[in-house]
Amino acid sequence: MIRLAKKEDAQQLLRLCNQFNGEGETSAAHIEQSILQNRQEIAVVAEEDGVLAGFVCVQMKKSLCYHAVLPEMTEVFVCEEHRRKGLASKMIAFAEAYCMEQNGVRRFELQTGEENFAAQALYRSLGYYEENEILMEKAMGQTEPRKRECAEERGSRPENKEGK
């Protein structure tokens, strides 16, 4: 069954979040509080035989620049043992329909890992397409900018103009 998350799901959602992000990133109390109070986010879950098998989180972004709400799918996760059953597609379709009904949204955004080819294939199969934007982040409190480990592999270092 695909449905919105409820506060009673907090402990099972914590188990899923720990599998997805590693332990210590959140707590059952925080998840429960978010489900009850965070009106900027919806969480959709896939439940099989009383056990949560996956979740999708959608942030509802609002801006003074636009009348429309812009939903961004920020998390999509299905337990390994429940993959290849179409649960991610069903949760995404549920989230899209819910947001269209509740907020009249006309489009969705999402970000995924550059090398997460399985997720990219899923999203493309659901009608998502790649935009030419760059995600940037800044870790606050650090004096040195974080270097991407694969920057040299992509050839982003300055070329030697005196060479060949």
Give a summary of the structure in a few sentences:
By secondary structure, the protein is of the alpha+beta class. Helices cover 29% and strands 20% of the residues. Helix 1 crosses helix 2.
Could you give the topology of this structure?
Elements lengths: L1 E3 L5 H12 L6 H10 L3 E8 L2 E11 L8 E9 L8 H17 L5 E2 L6 H9 L39
Parallel strand pairs: 4-5
Antiparallel strand pairs: 1-2, 2-3, 3-4
Helix pairs in contact: 1-2
The amount of helix comes to 25-40%
* H/E topology pattern: EHHEEEHEH
Average pLDDT for all residues: 88
**What is the beta-strand fraction?**
15-25%
Largest sheet: 5 strands, mixed
Distance between termini?
62 Å
Q: Strands of the largest sheet, in order across it?
A: 1-2-3-4-5
Q: Tally the helices.
A: 4
The radius of gyration is 19 Å
Structural class: alpha+beta
Catalogue the unreliable spans. 149-164
Choose one word for the global shape.
globular
Number of strands: 5
Description of the structure:
The chain is built from 4 helices and 5 strands; from the N terminus they run E-H-H-E-E-E-H-E-H. The C terminus is likely disordered. Strands 1-2-3-4-5 form a 5-stranded mixed β-sheet, sandwiched between helices. Helix 1 crosses helix 2. Helix content is 29%, strand content 20%. The protein has 164 residues and is an alpha+beta fold. The radius of gyration is 19 Å and the shape is globular.
